[in-house]
Write a structure and sequence with these properties.
The chain has about 150 residues and is mostly helical. Helix content is about 55%, strand content about 0%. The protein has six helices and no strands. Helix 2 (about 50-65) runs antiparallel to helix 6 (about 130-145). The longest helix has 18 residues, at about 95-115. It is rod-shaped, with a radius of gyration of 41 Å. The mean pLDDT is about 85.
């Protein structure tokens, strides 16, 4: 038996057919790229504040650089000062920072120039500007490392 089936169906556009099924049964959207893993930032180094002794020593040396260094006088008529005069100008008063800075400066002078120095003025008056500056810089470094 030869049976022919004739239908009145319209041929289906295969692309349209695929799109219709996609709307009915959508495939999952590709996953959005994952946010980059958050890498913790390294901790910031602790903020180190300048200690009062270091500040007095640093300010005193800056004073000497600006106004000049003197021997045999606390304050020269033109504004230069000896080491003790610069300490007094930087500290503003004979406070604890002034005393500690003076002790540290004298200790460093004894380290570099012998133990015989009894005071900052006697040491200051017996050395060159370069020698005095070397002691100031070393005292500032020590105050920095001691965090005082």
């Amino acid at each position: 038996m030869n049976t022919r089936t004739k239908t009145d169906f319209t041929p289906v556009d295969q692309d349209l057919y695929a799109k219709a099924f996609q709307l009915l049964d959508p495939t999952p959207e590709p996953a959005a790229p994952a946010a980059p893993a958050q890498v913790p930032l390294p901790a910031a180094p602790p903020v180190r504040l300048t200690g009062p002794v270091e500040k007095v020593l640093t300010d005193a040396l800056a004073f000497l650089d600006t106004h000049g260094w003197a021997r045999h006088t606390l304050v020269h008529p033109e504004g230069a000062r000896c080491s003790i005069g610069a300490l007094r100008a930087a500290a503003g008063a004979r406070n604890a920072a002034y005393c500690d800075a003076g002790n540290l400066l004298l200790d460093e002078a004894r380290r570099q120039h012998g133990k015989g120095w009894e005071s900052i003025p006697s040491w200051n008056d017996s050395h060159t500007g370069a020698q005095v500056r070397s002691v100031w810089e070393a005292a500032i470094r020590r105050a920095h490392h001691m965090n005082i």
